Amino acid sequence: MRTLAIGGFLVSLVLFAVVEWAARREGSRVPSLGAVCAYVMQYEVGSVPVGRIGLVGFWWWLGWHFFAR
Questions:
Q1: All residues at 6 or more sequence positions from 55 whose CB lies less than 8 Å from its CB, including other chains
Q2: What's the pLDDT score for residue 5?
Q3: pLDDT of residue 69
Q4: Long-range pairs of 14-18 with CB within 8 A, sequence gap ≥ 24
Q5: What is each CA distance from 50 to 24, 38, 59, in whole angstroms?
Q6: What phi and psi values does residue 52 have, to the nearest 5 degrees?
């Protein structure tokens, strides 16, 4: 089961790399990861930076799952 989970994370990492490569080609309409993060971080509800809180929460969740053991 552990091998399956590690394989899933590796496949996800490869897919992120492929999408980022596609985004950086000349004339591509695919947004880069940085552009997506910048767009999400702009989102606010009133004066609460919901996008920033969500992004920090996502990184916390990801780190927790990688470093919990």
A1: 37, 40, 41
A2: 87
A3: 66
A4: none
A5: 28, 13, 14
A6: -65, -40
The segments of the chain whose pLDDT lies below 50 read none
User: Where does residue 64 fall: left (phi above 0), alpha (psi -120 to 50 degrees), or beta otherwise?
Assistant: alpha
Distance of CA 35 to the CA centre of its chain: 11
pLDDT of residue 3: 92
Please indicate, yes or no, whether the overall pTM of this predicted structure exceeds 0.85: no
Question: Can you give the chain as a three-state secondary structure string?
Answer: CHHHHHHHHHHHHHHHHHHHHHHCCCCCCCCCHHHHHHHHHCCCECCECHHHHHHHHHHHHHHHHHHCC
